[in-house]
Task: structure prediction
Amino acid sequence: MAITDNILAYWKLDGNSNDSVASYNGTDTSITYSSGNGKIIQGAGFNGSTSKIELSTTAFGTVNTFSISMWINVTSPGTRQGVFCKTDGASTATTVFNIEVGNTANKITFSVSNGATANSVTSTASISSSTWTHVVCTCDGTDQKIYINGSLDSTTAYAGGAINNITKATTIGQFGSFGSLPYTGAIDEVGYWDRAINSTEVSQIYNSGTGIQYPFVDIITAQTGVFTLTGYSSTLTVGSTMTASTGSFLLTGNPTIFDIRGWINQSKNTSTWNNQSKHF
Result:
């Protein structure tokens, strides 16, 4: 199974909240996009009062098998804040799912409701302030899981039965349509799957802490031979990794290359690599 199988939406948050998979674009309120707010290229900054990104009321939380992946950089993780939620906050009957930070101080809490019962799992790991943390929450219809920085952190049983599929806005940065518990900090690279992604896929997205953007194809690997990227259409994004056991990589022409360390629209010619990894 490919990591992109059953991916419903992905928001890179590079200057806007447009969906890179389908058409589930967000509606922004008081969002600041910048490289300083981004893990990869750019991300969304939230002011802790009015900031939010509102998404579809019907597309998400329709089945009890789903996954949500994101990078968060929260200013005060000891304060309760909504991160990615579909709820109006009033009751279990009007909740679908919630991802919060600070419900238990410095922890991630992931709740899923079947309409009668909302089971929650809370991370064992603490979230550090003003530090990028990769969070993945999955539900496979049997268990709810939280992964922190590429590794399984905690698990609890799902309440059972169908998910509470009701029409509520899905919101990034607040506690759903209830409009409370606003988030302070940055969020980047948010993905939603209509299946529970597995531990291998979580590790791939975490990418040793570097992260990787949809469509998750930034790794180019050679055992032997030469790889050439030519012309202006060739692109390597932040998080790209080239690895060679033997052989070399050659970037010729004037490829468009984005690098977190600051070089754009330059040619790069590498020497032969032996068991080395180059990060662009």
